[in-house]
Amino acid sequence: MKLTYFGHACFLIEFGEKNLLFDPFITGNPLAKNIDWQQIKADYIFITHGHQDHLLDVEAIAKNTDALLISNYEIITWFGGKGLHKSHSMNHGGKYKFEFGTVKYVNAIHSSMLPDGSYGGNPGGFVIWGQAGCFYVAGDTALTEDMKLIPLTCPKLDVAILPIGDNYTMGYEDAVLASDFVQCNRVVGVHYNTFPPITIDVEKAKAHFAAQGKELILPAVGETIVL
Ligand code: NI
Ligand code: MN
Questions:
Q1: What was the pLDDT predicted at 155?
Q2: What's the 131 CA to ligand 1 centre distance in angstroms?
Q3: The domain that contains 201 carries what CATH number?
Q4: What average pLDDT does this structure show over 143-153?
Q5: What's the gap in Å between 220 CA and the centre of ligand 2?
Q6: Could you report the per-residue pLDDT of 6-18, keeping only the tens digit for each?
Q7: For the purposes of burial, counting CB atoms within 10 Å of the CB of 191, is it exposed (0-12), middle (13-18) or buried (19 or more)?
């Protein structure tokens, strides 16, 4: 697996032969001004919930790449109304086998109104596994005991991608506990430093993880890392 970070909570995972893009929010993010969204090659676009900072560039990238959208029923229906019909809807607790592997849509504690005020269903995260490995994308969420269900119901995680910016989601202290709950000591942190209320001290966050024998990986915007 390879991960390329596009800022905020947007990243691409090269998973075997397929490119999986998560929560595209690039053109609205000044920290991602050097990212050219037209260069992104996505086969699938995953949307965790209905907020603008997770789906602003979905439509443009889907049209540019012909990627298939994966999200909850309400968000997929909303994009259908915009003429995007290459999609697959899921709901919480369900898993589905795609050509690249299995996707499970899991619980998150957050909110999910769509940008025009439409109901976005309940927010979620994804656990994805296949030949290439197994990873968890928490989406925007509080720390929740539901995370303890993941090791009981999914293969062992290689990496967990967790929000760490606080204010709108859990902060890095709670993310350490989340990594305990999901039994994965290797964490990629997202959803921090984009806006003033989610600005954090990254060195402090890394040290906090390290003190508990855990690794907090914070790729630079545009950086690709091998997982
Ligand atoms: Ni959100
Ligand atoms: Mn968000």
A1: 98
A2: 30
A3: 3.60.15.10
A4: 98
A5: 18
A6: 999 999 999 999 9
A7: buried
